[in-house]
Design a protein that fits this description.
Its cofactor is Mn(2+); Mg(2+). Pfam families: MTPAP-like_central (PF22600), PAP_assoc (PF03828), RL (PF17797). GO terms for molecular function: metal ion binding; poly(A) RNA polymerase activity. This is PAPD1 protein. The structure is a single chain. By secondary structure, the chain is an alpha+beta fold. Among the domains are: about 210 residues, 2-Layer Sandwich (Beta Polymerase, domain 2); about 150 residues, Poly(a)-polymerase, middle domain (Orthogonal Bundle), CATH 1.10.1410.10. It is built from 19 helices and 13 strands. It has a five-stranded mixed β-sheet with strand order 5-6-9-8-7, with helices on both faces. Strands 2-3-1-4 form a four-stranded mixed β-sheet, with helices on both faces. Strands 10-11 form a two-stranded antiparallel sheet. Helix 14 packs across helix 15. The C terminus is likely disordered.
Length: about 525
């Protein structure tokens, strides 16, 4: 029953289905600047019941409107006109994006109540640090960070709407297809401002199988045949990419990257403000999203620690949005999960333990890999571990500051340090494709930098005199870790450098030279 579902934690599939359904009943309206909220809602209600709505800023004021019935959208679309553009000619594609302007703006100069605008990006780190200094413990600092950075309900609705608008194009060719978000938009670890990863799904939900058994004939569609699945993916994405580029309102900077390991179309979706990546269904990526969703739902400390470590890594240049030899956020998240599996008692179960709890409907074999694990959160016993986040943060830096990366790899299936199968500096087993290392891109200097920063951070947390720092109005606890090191404590940093290989120091010096060269280059270019 619905009531029963709302009291327990929903499964990943339930959440997804619910949000996809909401998105199909949703429209986005660019509003006039002097807007009376009551009048807008009153007008919209003439087309059907408005179930929820919010306003946000993005090149002006916008409203996301969710109707109770999908039919209300058709009713509204009937009333909307085509723009009478003189200098442009329009592509007459009728989407769920509208612009409303007031017919007689003069009479409505009175603004009763200012609109509440829902924030779609997080505060800058320096503002965060000020907030953190007001907290009373590291644990509350970490929850403040989580609250500032995590996706809001509104932002998630906007992400699903972006997928739903792309789905409208896909369905022009493939009426049964769906476009779903995966990765950080749905795994509970997404940060405000992050990209939207979406994939195109053609899999018919099991409805078909039952029908096919009836009757005396084996029946199948005649379909175009291509030599490989990859080629089919490339062709489909190429056409849908062109479609978005040519007809998609507000889809700009469309790039087709069809020769990548996973072919994709990148584009900017101006109406929602998201940078989007569209690919074709990747079952393993979806299983990873669900695994993280489960870990994120099991214990509130999990997300607080992950958001904290990722913010810390970004501040110290350990992660970077550009691809390269840096540790990725995904690798970092997996390192946090592994650390939480290693606590005594463990805070989250290993993947093998989750697999043992799986029943028939949880069975997933993908490309020969067993990707089964339990989906019902009620079957997972809560942890007996009572450590505070204050303790866990220090212990995380301590653990990885002293981890034997030369010999050991990180394996979330077993929750154990396992001998490295090959010599990559950092080896983290892909939880599902067991022969892949998700951190293969990381080089030795970057790993050593991570270790040095972890040691420095553990040291700062241990040595700290909180009361004194609060009296002196100095950043303390987490706030002290989010200020780039070496600003105030370069001599201590030199001591930390002692353990580093000469190769690392050389590469750090090289990167400084590079930075210098770059800034000179820029200066010359002006």
């Amino acid at each position: 029953t619905d009531a029963e579902v709302s009291t327990r934690k929903k499964t990943f599939a339930e959440v997804l289905t619910e949000q996809l359904d909401q998105a199909e009943r949703t429209v986005l309206i660019k509003c006039p600047s002097k807007l009376n909220e009551k009048k807008l809602l009153q007008y919209l209600s003439s087309h059907g019941n408005v179930k929820s709505h919010f306003f946000f800023e993005n090149r002006g004021i916008n409203a996301l409107i969710e109707f109770s019935e999908k039919s209300s959208i058709a009713s509204l679309q009937d009333a909307v006109g085509i723009p009478s553009a003189s200098e442009y000619h329009v592509v007459p594609f009728k989407s769920r994006l509208f612009t409303f302007t007031l017919k007689n703006p003069v009479s409505q100069h009175v603004e009763e109540t200012p609109l509440h605008l829902s924030p779609q990006c997080h505060i800058p780190v320096k503002d965060l640090i000020e907030k953190l200094c007001l907290a009373d413990s590291i644990s509350s600092q970490m929850y403040i960070l989580l609250n500032e950075y995590q996706l809001t309900e509104e932002n998630i609705k906007l992400r699903f709407l972006a997928c739903s608008l792309v789905q409208d194009f896909a369905r022009a060719y493939f009426p049964d297809s769906t476009v779903k978000p995966f990765g950080s938009s749905v795994n509970t670890f997404g940060k405000l401002g992050s990209d939207v990863d979406m994939f195109l799904d053609f899999r018919d939900t099991g409805k078909h199988a039952a029908k096919m058994k009836k009757g005396p004939f084996e029946m199948e569609y005649q379909m175009k045949r291509l030599p490989s699945e990859r080629l089919a993916t490339q062709r489909i994405l190429s056409v849908i990419g062109d479609c978005l580029d040519n007809f998609g309102p507000g889809c700009v900077n469309v790039q087709k990257i069809l020769n990548a390991r996973c072919p994709l179309v990148k584009f900017s979706h101006q109406p929602t403000g998201f940078q989007c990546d569209l690919s074709v269904s990747n079952s393993i990526a979806i299983r990873s999203s669900e695994l993280l969703y489960i870990y994120g739902c099991l214990d509130s400390r999990v997300r607080a620690l992950v958001f904290t470590i990722r913010c810390w890594a970004r501040v110290h240049g350990l992660t970077n949005s550009a691809p390269g030899t840096w540790i990725t956020n995904f690798s970092l998240t997996m390192m946090v999960m592994f650390f939480l599996q290693r606590r005594s008692p463990p805070i989250i179960p290993t993947l093998d333990q989750l697999k043992e709890l799986a029943d028939e409907k949880d069975k997933h074999i993908i490309g020969g890999y067993d990707c089964s694990f339990v989906s019902d959160l009620r079957k997972i016993k809560p942890t007996k571990n009572t450590e505070t986040l204050d303790e866990l943060l220090g212990e995380f830096f301590e653990y990885f500051g002293n981890f034997d990366f030369r010999k050991n790899s990180i394996n979330l299936r077993k929750g154990k340090e396992v001998n490295k199968p090959e010599s990559s500096p950092l080896y983290i087993w892909n939880p599902f494709e067991q022969d892949l290392n998700i951190s293969k891109n990381v080089n030795q200097p970057q790993l050593e930098k991570f270790v040095a920063m972890a040691r420095e951070s553990a040291w700062i947390l241990q040595k700290e005199d909180k009361t004194q720092q609060i009296i002196n109005k100095e950043p303390w606890g987490l706030a002290a870790l989010l200020i780039p090191f070496g600003k105030s404590n370069s001599s201590r940093m030199k001591n930390r450098m002692k353990g580093m290989g000469s190769e690392t120091i050389r590469s750090l010096l090289d990167s400084l030279k590079l930075n210098n060269a770059n800034s000179q280059q820029k200066a010359v270019g002006k």
